[in-house]
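does this look right to u?? S-adenosylmethionine version
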Amino acid sequence: MTCPDDPFPDLPAGKEELFAAAAAEYDRYRPGVPTEAAELLADTVRDLPDPVLLDLGTGTGQVPRALLPAVPGLAHIEAVDVSRQMLDQARDALVPVLGRCTLRLVHAAADAYGPLPDDETRAPDLVTCCRSFHWMDGPAVLAMADRVAAPDATVAIMGDGSLWTHEADWTRALRELIQHYLGSERRAGTGATYSEPRRSYGEGLATSAWSDVTEHRIPVGRAWAPKDVIGYLRSTSFAGPELFGQRHAAFEAEARTLLDAHAAGDSLSESAVFTLLLARRPGVAR
Ligand SMILES: C[S@@+](CC[C@H](N)C(=O)[O-])C[C@H]1O[C@@H](n2cnc3c(N)ncnc32)[C@H](O)[C@@H]1O
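got this back:
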């Protein structure tokens, strides 16, 4: 396992800081990849000997963690992220469960990823982007995947929205409270606001080398304890502590009161849909 001491050259300014502070909270409070999604990913490499995974925007390693048990023969993982703190969390979580699989942590922007010059790692058979593609230069990432991936590889773009986008009474009330403190626009770290991608992921894939796309939608029910929602919020780019400055403690106290009132001694439910787009190059039979 390696983690280069120096980052790859093209780390975007400000990107690393955006995710650094959140790494520990992210690891603790973000839901993992659903088992059904892991099985669909596993099916894409099921018949291959010694498959290799390239996980872009790996965060704390949620995708490799879900895939290792689903693909017992997984031979190698390239885990890429712009945040060194996220990679540190990923290493701590993955090393104990790797078994014979090898791991390389790569501190780089996804579109700048490439194998090292003397690298003997096989080309990836599966390239994954979970809850991370919207942070990246999509066309450049898909072009990079086309350069590096095996001929019959699959690209998987997946995610399940967030408590900002979820529509329920308690998430609406929570969003309004965040907006009361931070303004109506959804924040994306300090000094930036979130803008919806101009094209859907499907449209982006359709015009890339990965135009043979199938979509899978997996309903996921989650029960949140109010204190875990508070921890989750700390890990987000729309309600992280740094956005509130001195008012963070006041925000958390109000948010906790609001969540407790909605939970009324029970948990808060989220009905999410985890969506996977599995994309291949056209005309590639498996
Ligand atoms: C919301 S997290 C998702 C983490 C993980 N894939 C998961 O599903 O839990 C997004 C991750 O993408 C990383 N990231 C953002 N922009 C990136 C880029 N251009 N290249 C590589 N990683 C990036 C962030 O540092 C962060 O760890």
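The longest strand covers residues 212-224. idk if thats expected tbh
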